[in-house]
Amino acid sequence: xxxxxxxxxxxxxxxxxxxxxxxxxxxxxxxxxxxxxxxxxxxxxxxxxxxxxxxxxxxxxxxxxxxxxxxxxxxxxxxxxxxxxxxxxxxxxxxxxxxxxxxxxxxxxxxxxxxxxxxxxxxxxxxxxxxxxxxxxxxxxxxxxxxxxxxxxxxxxxxxxxxxxxxxxxxxxxxxxxxxxxxxxxxxxxxxxxxxxxxxxxxxxxxxxxxxxxxxxxxxxxxxxxxxxxxxxxxxxxx
Amino acid sequence: xxxxxxxxxxxxxxxxxxxxxxxxxxxxxxxxxxxxxxxxxxxxxxxxxxxxxxxxxxxxxxxxxxxxxxxxxxxxxxxxxxxxxxxxxxxxxxxxxxxxxxxxxxxxxxxxxxxxxxxxxxxxxxxxxxxxxxxxxxxxxxxxxxxxxxxxxxxxxxxxxxxxxxxxxxxxxxxxxxxxxxxxxxxxxxxxxxxxxxxxxxxxxxxxxxxxxxxxxxxxxxxxxxxxxxxxxxxxxxxxxxxxxxxxxxxxxxxxxxxxxxxxxxxxxxxxxxxxxxxxxxxxxxxxxxxxxxxxxxxxxxx
Lengths: 239, 303
Known about the structure:
A: 11 helices; B: alpha/beta; six-stranded mixed β-sheet; elongated; ABC-2 type transport system permease protein (chain A); membrane (chain A); transmembrane helix (chain A)
């Protein structure tokens, strides 16, 4: 199911180009803001939770997910170099699964790790807030990577659609329409975070059982479907 | 023996028919797929390589379906027309990756690089390669698993004459070894120099198939049209029409020229200057009026 060569090619494509700069910029911004907030406000649990929830989980994780998820396959399909993977006796689901693992790992490293560091800077992990949001970032990394990898497989405009989902649906729509929150990766991961932190600082609109089921279903379905789409991927000629 | 069978294959994109009911058999040796730009060659090659589903019909390799059959790639090597190829890798890294994806190691990769004579630049990044070098590294990646069928889409595009000759030698060798090699081209001379057998595709249809010499003869024997201006058009016309190599002459008053249709190309080109000299006529313009590839192809379709 996992091919080390596909993984190596994907890592190098993801981390080698300008994408790496964008991947690094957001976490850096989060940490810089955390240092400033800590210096101005001091260690405050509510502030830490607001910043980690609003900036890290609601904005940074999905954007990193979009870049890593779509970037793991989209550019190869766009420029046609995916032909070198497809013209091999490799099961298509193996290609997708391997790219998913890479996308998850990259999203986790560039989103969960900075979240943890920012959490410790903000309030030294008081009330388990840093750990709770880090767990949420880890969990949502998986679902985002799967969703955006699928998007990268089926659409040439994956980055745009991905950003629209991440910023409009998750952030804006979710805060206006209650129902939209049930269908939000962010809320599902918050349900897991709530379990870790306890208390009322980290809350979710979705119960933990529902959140867990939805997370698993979305990840598995998206991965399966991406594998199917890759099996019948059509490479258009130059004509 | 590897035989690629294309059986009543059509492919359309929306309302546009790119490939129209083509049946052909590609056997061992070098086959040229010839046709003008936009004739459907790439569409056809994409279907042969399993990257595009035929709308109707089937493509099989020794009886096995090509579309949605990953295992078939153990036998197929593909050199795509598109340039993109993991430019951030070195040539060696790229070919090694291709070998690994076939379950092979660095040794197979090294052999393939040696075959295409790219060892000298194997440690440079692909992004620094010239067009010809890229083409050769693509070849190495296609050869790494010693495939019995090699598909190449416009492999000579943008190559300089020396690189072209090297690649031709290599493909000829592959054909001599008994591999089935198919390459597409829109340039007659390329196909003529390399292919033993050609398939001609025009406007999505299969226009001709067979030995290139036969088809080449069809091409050179076709009626040629010339526009000729001289110091005495009518005298020249009278002298030329007496010879069987000329089948018709029109005096174009508006252009102030003769429109000549020649049926025997070789004989006519020798006759024209001789007749002019014998009659003391000066030739001012001699230009072929239908040398475009499209006219050659449309003649072939009609034949």
